[in-house]
Design goal:
This protein has 70 residues and is mainly alpha-helical. The chain contains three helices and no strands. Helix 2 runs antiparallel to helix 3.
């Protein structure tokens, strides 16, 4: 029997995904605020913030779906 078949904690992945998604979303919101309020914002600051928010939101939605599914 493989080691992965013997592991019993099946909710750890979605829980970590939920935490990761929330952290990335908060980082994206912070980057967006810095980009909007800064006078020396670069060209890629705002698109990077939007991308981080989207990745975070998708991760939260997927992890929440997996937690509800189990």
């Amino acid at each position: 029997m493989k080691l992965s078949h013997r592991l019993g904690a099946r909710n750890a992945g979605p829980a970590w995904g939920l935490a990761f998604g929330l952290v990335v979303t908060l980082i994206g919101v912070g980057l967006w605020c810095v980009a909007k309020l800064s006078l020396t914002a670069g060209r890629f600051d705002e698109p990077l913030a939007v991308a981080a928010v989207l990745v975070g939101v998708f991760a939260v939605i997927y992890a929440a779906h997996e937690l509800r599914h189990r």
